Each structure stands twice: as C-alpha cells, then as structure tokens.
Amino acid sequence: MGPLVIYSSNFIWYLLLVLCVVLKIQVVQANGWLNAHATFYGANKSPTSLGGACGYDDTFHAGFGVNTAAVSSMLFREGEVCGACYQVICDYKIDPKWCLRSRSVTITVTNFCPPNNHGGWCDPPNHHFDMSMPSFSSIARQGSEGIVPVLYRRVACKRRGGVRFTLKGQSNFNMVMITNVGGSGDVKGVLIRGGRSGGWLAMHRNWGANWQSSGDLRNQRLSFKISLVDGKTLVFLNVVPSNWRFGQTFSSHTQFF
Questions:
Q1: What does each C-alpha distance from 128 to 54, 88, 121, 161 come to in angstroms?
Q2: CA proximity to 254, closest of 162, 147, 153, 143
Q3: Largest distance between two CA atoms of the chain
C-alpha cells in the first residue's frame, strides 16, 4: 500500500476555483467570445478624424461613422485588420461597477494602439481596444477609470452603399484608399486594371487601407479585383471613369456581404 495523502480543505477549494476559471474560459471561447480590455480616445479628439495608422482621412467619409477603435498589435496584423468589425461587450460579471449590463457595440478598426514595451495595455500579448468616446460610452458608465474588461468577437461589417475608391498619388505612382468594405471588411489583396492596359496589375499595401501600384493609368477607366481575408473576391469593372482625377472618390454598385 502506498502512502496516504491527505489534502487540506483550502487546497481542495483552490483546485475547484482553478477548475471553474478554466471551464469559464472554455465556454467563452466556444461561443466565439474572447477576453480583452478597452480604453477610450481622449475626449477632446474627434472620432471623425482618427484615421491614424489605417490612413482613413475621415471615418464618416470612409463609411464607418463614430464607432471606431484602435487595436493592439496582436489584432492589428500590420494593417491587414483595417476596416474589420468587432462586436464588443463590457464584461459586467467582472466589473459591475463600471460596465453597463447587456450592452454591446460594433466597432470598425481604424487605427493602431502602439505598444510601449513597459507593461502597457497595448503591449503583446494583450488584446486591447482603444475605442472612440461614443463607442466606449455605449458599453461603460460615465466617470469610469478609463479601463474596463470586455468580451469581443469578429462580426460581418454591414455597410451602406458600395465599396469606395479614393484615388491618390501622382503620374506613374497610383495609390488607392479602399473604404466602406462590407463582409469581413479586411482586405487581403487588390488587383487593378486600366481600360487600355489589358491585364491585371497587382497592388501592394502601402499602409493601412492604402494600396499602391506602379504604371501610368491616367485617362483610363479603372477596374479592381478585391480579395478579403475570409477568401471572398469581387470584381469591380469600370468603377472609375477615364476622366478621373487624383483626390476623387468613386463608389461601386456592388458590395461584399
């Protein structure tokens, strides 16, 4: 017979507590929700102008409104996540003092929350949302300390109207800002074709939602082929007329769903 091992009641309660925490995490993840924290942009900043690292000139012009957020590097993926949508809920069970019960908000990623490498909320491996004041206030009480626990999950982006193409650059340097993208919202790859050029030309992400290509496509109708991170692809034929000018924005008649 082996030695008789006697566990104290405190140790048994500790094991049960750990088991409950593990089970809770598994349930949250099984339902598609993940744990994170959220803060908010400075109250004196207008959410309409916080394009930041995604390069949006204005969140209303981009089709996103005021419910936007910057995300930590674990979510940002070097700009690939720009335009993606998340549903965020303040975790009332953890923080009933500041969280509003059963309130959620859907935000669009428009910026990057950079790490400071000193234990900040946006340092890896943290998943963090630095939200616009309107979106943060819709899930947390006014006067909070500025940091709340949240649950989040990816959701489809529901956009009004078509995908928008804003033409930037000069001469043989073409840069296009692609906004108001529905579906998964995050663009994986872009091809461009001029009306007289024949074949498709690959574009490369310059920064955030801005894609660039070489070649002079002025005075040509422009078509685009866009692929999203979820694998969906759409072709936008002749969405830009031949008399386009840099700085103009054109909207398609089709959209990702």
A1: 17, 11, 7, 30
A2: 162
A3: 91
Q: Answer yes or no: are the C-beta atoms of 252 and 159 closer than 8 Å.
A: no
β-strands 34-40, 128-131 pairing: parallel
Which tokens is 111 given? 């910026």
C-alpha distances in Å from residue 72, one per residue of 18, 20, 168, 203: 28, 28, 28, 26
> Which amino acid is residue 84, in one-letter code?
A
Q: Which residues contact 3 (CB under 8 A, 6 or more apart)?
A: none
Helix (H) or strand (E) holding 34: strand 34-40
Quick check: 74 and 127 in contact, CB under 8 A?
A: yes
The C-alpha torsion from 169 through 172 and 173 to 177, rounded to 10°, is: 60
Residues 6+ apart with CB under 8 A from 87: 104, 105, 106, 152, 153, 155
CA dihedral 102, 107, 112, 113 (to 10 degrees): -20
CA distance 48 to 41: 12
Q: Are 83 and 209 in contact (CB under 8 A)?
A: yes
Q: Express each pLDDT in 59-71 by its tens digit.
A: 888 999 999 999 9
pLDDT digits (tens, 9 = 90+) for 128-146: 999 999 999 999 997 766 7
C-alpha angle 87/160/108, rounded to 5°?
A: 30
- Band of pLDDT at residue 57, cut at 50, 70 and 90: confident
With tokens 């490369």, the residue in question is 204
